[in-house]
Amino acid sequence: MRRNWPLLIILAGLAVLTYAGWDDLRYQLFIRADSPFHQPQVGEETAKQLKDSPSKIIPRSVPITPNKIVIPSVGINDVIQEAADFAHWTKGAWHRPGTGDPTHGNMVLAGHRFGFPGLTFTEVQSRSFYLLGHVKEGAVILVNWQGLEYPYQVTQVFQVDKTQVEIEAATIWPQLTLYSCNLRGEPDGRLVVVAKPLY
């Protein structure tokens, strides 16, 4: 059994590397718009129409389902969870308590970078913020909130230290702020995406 330890350690390392790299490979092959294997993502057609529109958009009605966030350019399609604190946040994008919503203020959503236990490879890509680092300025984000779809456009992508809580500060006008830990974990700081409403 002792002779097998090095082999087991190597296999475990390969499994971790494969798991961590699968979502990025899937993004490069199937989600990126310029990939020859591109597969249409939820909300992608709406995002194209919104980018081409010269004027403000009226939020459109959508079936009343759990509130969710959709980022077509990276395939994120996740439920927005309301939870009192970090301990009760079990899945989805966490709507930070005391922050705004699409009708007012700075709506702040935090997301796990690597997903949750029990998610498949495909679910990690769509139901976590693993691919948030691929979101670019100008990308369209859709927030389905209480039966209306609110479109946003990304204006900033940057990194902050985990102590820089000013990213959650209230704003006078509607704004969407998303954040997650960096790929090397929370001690390495946070990735932040800020978007302004197109409505």
Summarize the structure.
Helix content is 21%, strand content 31%. It is α+β, with helices and mostly antiparallel strands and 199 residues long.
Structural class: alpha+beta
How many β-strand runs? 9
N-to-C order of helices and strands: HHEEEEEHEEEE
**Integer average pLDDT:** 82
**Which CATH class is shown?**
Mainly Beta
Beta-strand fraction estimate? 25-35%
- Tally of helical segments: 3
CATH topology: Sortase, Chain: A
Low-confidence stretches: none
Which oligomerization state do the chains in this entry correspond to? single chain
Largest sheet: 8 strands, mixed, barrel
Largest sheet strand order: 2-3-4-5-8-9-7-6
State the distance separating the first and last CA atoms.
64 Å
> Gyration radius, to the nearest Å?
18 Å
- Count of the separate structural domains: 1
Helix content: 10-25%
Going by CATH, the architecture would be Beta Barrel
Any idea what the CATH superfamily is called?
A: Sortase
Overall spatial form: globular
